[in-house]
Amino acid sequence: MDCLANIKFLDALDQPIKGLVHQLWVGPTLISDYVTPASGESVWVKRPVGTVIDVRVRSITSGEYKSKVKIRLIGEKTVFIVRSPKVLLKGLSLSARDVATGTYVRSTYIVAEGDYLGRIAVDNATTIDELVRINNLKDDTDIRAGQILKLPPKKSETPTPPPESKPKPQPVKPSQQEKTKIIVVQQKDTLSLIAKLTGNTVDEIKKLSGLNSDKLSQNQKLRVYDRKVASAVSKSQPEKKKEENKPVRPPTVKQDASKNKEKTPVAKVESPVPASSRISERNERHIRKLHPQAQDRIRKLIQVVYKKHQIQLVIVQSFRTYAEQDALYAQGRTKKGPIVTYARGGESNHNFGLAVDVFPLWEDGKLHMAGKGVDAKNVKILRVIGETGKTAGLMWGGDWKGKKQDNPHFELNVGKSMSELRQAVQNAGGDPMKVQYTVK
User: Fold this and answer.
1) What is the band of 311 on the pLDDT scale with cuts at 50, 70, 90?
2) What whole-number distance in Å separates Cα of residue 352 and Cα of residue 418?
3) Is the pLDDT of residue 436 over 70?
4) Which of 308, 320, 321, 438 is most buried (CB neighbours < 10 A)?
């Protein structure tokens, strides 16, 4: 049986990687030489199930193609999602750990620390039973941080490959007066890549240069038609080279206080690596689940933190149902795992769409939520961000006392107790999003 497959390249914030120059190989045979468009997708290929596709990415600095991941084809029609651990760095650090083993025309989900299957199901418009079935889980607690879960397909997200019978576009016929120019072959260049970057066809280049085969040698001179080609790759290369050569340092917290620093500390976080200033799609999915009066406050928090501190925040928790809250409360008590909350269903602002939990992306473009020294570093950054959250009109969980202190937590202050919130939801017909609050 043959598998019709495609590969989609995403960065750490699930944004498509545009302009990624890459090749697809099967053993010693090159089957595709391609540059990703704005969708971040490669070409569709059809090969027998079990075929191993070697994905090789071209280095911006050396021009060499290096093998990054190998994918074994499964199913009749499959989209493989390859994620870079970087933010918008065109996949320069793709590794085998970042590729899904195969999803049927759908993405995957990487389990974060504190995740539970009920929330993952709600976020991805599916059910707990369906996730248990397609991932061969023992039960709804059989997940761990870092685990890759398959997600069922969504009709709206199902890409439709071009029909195989569709005729190929005819090459542009040059006019007799069309000008030509000489180019010099660089290391690892291929005829198909040169054709793509110059707007020529392989046959045109071979005819103009008197070639009898597709083999090229470094510094070989080729004649091509002088055509203007809008190439996102060529424009971005100098900028990327400059970025790659910059030393990477972690965000630093600087103390800049009055004379009595212990009582009146004023700190700021500085990062040499700029983060993305836009609200990522992952954040926006969470924000859309919040109460309408909280949404713009959370957006403002993310934007102000980036503008003021150059730190990108990622929302990891937002609205939770009572059932989801109870399931989370059970962790560390009647279920395996560490205690992550002290609130039952109906006792958390998350249950009313008024709160989010956020974590900062580190200098490597990744979220770090577990491991030695991770908590201390996150808390150090979040304590600075906490003050910024207050300027956005939010309450910060870092101000809470004792065990209930929650540095990643921000919530809209509506001036109501938990019992008053539950009553307000009941008065609104059971829909927490229809409650109208008086907010300062």
Assistant:
1) confident
2) 10
3) yes
4) 320
How many other C-beta atoms are found inside a 10 Å radius of the C-beta of residue 79? Answer: 24
Q: What is the DSSP string of 407-440?
A: TTEEEE--S--HHHHHHHHHHTTT-GGG------
**Pick from 43-57, 165-179, 394-408: least confident:** 165-179
User: Would you say 412 and 294 are in contact if contact means Cβ atoms under 8 Å apart?
Assistant: yes
Domains defined along the chain, listed by start: 2-154 (2.60.40.10), 180-226 (3.10.350.10), 252-434 (3.30.1380.10)
Task: Answer positive or negative: Cα dihedral of 140, 143, 149, 150.
Answer: negative
Compute the distance between CA of residue 330 and CA of residue 325 in angstroms, rounded to an integer. Answer: 9
Between 106 and 23, name the one with better pLDDT.
23
399 in Cβ contact with 287 (< 8 Å): no
Number of Cβ within 10 Å of residue 3's Cβ equals 20
- Rounded Cα distance between 149 and 111, Å, is 7
- Rounded CA-CA distance 283/303 in Å is 12
pLDDT tens column, 220-259: 888 888 886 654 333 444 444 444 444 434 444 444 444 4
Helix (H) or strand (E) segment spanning residue 16: none
Coil vs helix vs strand at 352:
helix
Q: Residue 349 carries which DSSP code?
A: G
Q: Give φ, ψ of 351 to 5 degrees.
A: -70, -10
> Contact 410/397 with Cβ under 8 angstroms?
yes
Cβ(352)–Cβ(419) below 8 Å: no
What contacts 371, CB < 8 A, 6 or more positions away? none
Which residue reads 């497959």 in tokens? 5
- Using DSSP's 3-state secondary structure scheme, residue 160 falls into coil
Got the DSSP string for 169-199? PPPPPPPTT--EEEEEPPTT--HHHHHHHHT
